[in-house]
Structures are given as structure tokens and as C-alpha cells.
User: Fold this.
Amino acid sequence: MPKTEKLPILQDFGAMVRAYRIERNLSQEAFADACEIDRSYMGGVERGERNLALVNIVRIVQALDMEPSDFFRGLDKDKRHDWRAKELAERERKALNKQFLGNKKPKRSAHTL
Assistant:
């Protein structure tokens, strides 16, 4: 099956979901469980590969303990670019870590604990 082009709005939505999830220190698996959504499906959401039904959007917003108006404010035109830039920066950081550290996790210093 050929890969379809990801729509920017879906990528932005997924980046917002991922950022809010990480902000709350939730693993993707724990968050998917809280949303009553399969973890692999949630991965597709965060990668911008899924066009969600409203019921799943509401589950995500509720699991983030947010009001829909606050959540969707992040999709305003002036903020959408910020989510994509954060997502790209995170991907670059992970790629560099993988390149330089291999599969090893970076050591935490006492200052970051």
C-alpha cells in the first residue's frame, strides 16, 4: 500500500497531542489507555497519520484534563507553526542522540533530577 501524504492539520494536531502528553509526563501507552484508544492507533495520531472521529478527539482532550477551547486554541494559525517546529526539533534531537549514543539512554546528572 503506498504511503499517503500527511495533511499539515493532522501533523499539527498530533504534535499538539504529543506535546501535551509529554508535558503531563505520560507515556504513550498510559495515555492511550486513559483515552481508551489502542496504543498503536495513538502513535498514528501523534505522527499525523490518523483523521480522528470526534469521539476520539473528545477522549484525548478529556484525558489531558483540558477544555476543548483551550486545546484547540493551539491550532490557531499563528500557533500551528510553533507545534510543527517543536516536533521537528524533538525529532532532530532524538536522531542526534541515536547517532551519538546508539541505543544507550543519555545519563542524567544530579542537576536534572
Remarks:
- The helical segments are 8-23, 28-35, 39-46, 54-63, 68-73, 77-101.
- The mean pLDDT is 82.
- Residues 77-101 form the longest helix (25 residues).
- Residues 61 and 70 are 9 Å apart (CA to CA).
